[in-house]
Design brief:
The chain contains 8 helices and 14 strands. The chain is of the alpha/beta class. It has one domain: Alpha/Beta hydrolase fold, catalytic domain (Rossmann fold, 3-Layer(aba) Sandwich), CATH 3.40.50.
Length: 315
């Protein structure tokens, strides 16, 4: 091989090696409707020696896309490893907009905790500086990952917890009665014009969590729709809309849907036959939409970076 060609080949190999060091695919076991499944995530590494802080990024009902890549780039630029979970592809799902049961909330939320377990065992990551953020369905997982009952059920070791939770426009349709929450800060970023999941349920739940001693801050951006952080406007007429459905756990541990008053789970923890269908018939609608709001997009990104500097980078 000629010297010039050899140099070019070496340069190419160096680029490939650098890319391999900057990006890594991991997998971890989770669950799909009672069956085990291997879920994957891409880690985008910052160009500095470890161990480094990490931010888990969990997508919404539309799957992994440009938004997750954009936020991953911002995290890496700050010196934080970005961990983008793909909860859909390993399950053969492309979207849950029209059928949220394709990947249940329970299974989706579990992915976030199993990712934490995997990252806690990774020597390149500072296990005390792992945060989680998510959008819509992923925002809900980012919020639920602060609930100790789910952390324990997932088998997360004691001493390993997310250090920061940043849910973007999550659903707060399931509200637990006096849940035990980790001490990590929770910053919920909501849109005042969100008709997909609404914002009042998360305000209400945030206040309840605060009353229980959790560190929760709720920001509502004026005139901001679902998906305010960026992307093209959209409307899906057959999209499942649960914005009016709020299931609240009572003091006796039963569950009641707020708008219909229907008790769906008794104090004995057993579902009441036909009650869930009755409650959903009263509160669930069809039709979802969203779109970017430039002011909210800029401010939410600035806020996110401030949270990361404060809680993951320590300054």
């Amino acid at each position: 091989m000629r010297p010039a060609a050899l140099a070019a080949a070496c340069a190419l190999l160096a680029c490939v090696s650098a890319e391999a060091q900057q990006r890594e695919t991991i997998s971890f076991e989770s669950r799909q409707k009672g069956q085990p499944v291997q879920v994957t995530a891409e880690i985008y590494w910052p160009p500095k020696p470890g161990p480094v802080p990490a931010m888990v990024i969990h997508h919404g009902s539309g799957g992994v896309g440009e938004r997750e890549s954009r936020f991953a780039r911002e995290m890496v630029a700050m010196g934080v490893a970005a961990v983008v979970i793909d909860s859909f592809k390993p399950r053969g799902v492309t979207s849950t907009v029209q059928d949220q049961s394709a990947v249940t909330g329970q299974d989706f939320n579990l992915d976030a905790l199993m990712a934490l377990k995997a990252l806690g065992a990774n020597g390149r990551i500072d296990r005390n500086k792992i945060g989680i953020m998510g959008f819509s369905k992923g925002g809900t997982s980012a919020l639920m990952a602060a609930h100790e009952q789910f952390i324990g059920a997932a088998g997360v070791p004691s001493g390993l917890r997310y250090a920061l939770h940043v849910p973007f426009y999550p659903s707060c349709s399931a509200q637990y009665y006096r849940p035990q929450i980790t001490r990590a800060p929770i910053y919920m970023l909501l849109g005042a014009a969100d008709t997909y999941v609404g914002y009042e349920p998360c305000q209400t739940y945030g206040q309840a969590l605060q009353a229980g001693g959790a560190s929760v801050q709720v920001t509502v951006f004026p005139n901001a729709m679902h998906g305010f952080d960026g992307g093209a406007p959209y409307a899906v007429s057959r999209g499942e809309n649960y914005s009016k459905c709020v299931f609240q756990q009572q003091a006796d541990r039963s569950w009641v849907e707020r708008s219909s008053g229907v008790m769906t789970i008794g104090a004995d923890g057993k579902p009441i036959s036909g009650a869930l269908a009755k409650a959903l018939a009263a509160c669930r609608t069809l039709g979802v939409s969203g779109g970017a709001n430039d002011a909210a997009a800029r401010q939410s990104m600035d806020d996110l970076k401030a949270y990361v500097r404060r809680h993951l980078l320590g300054g």
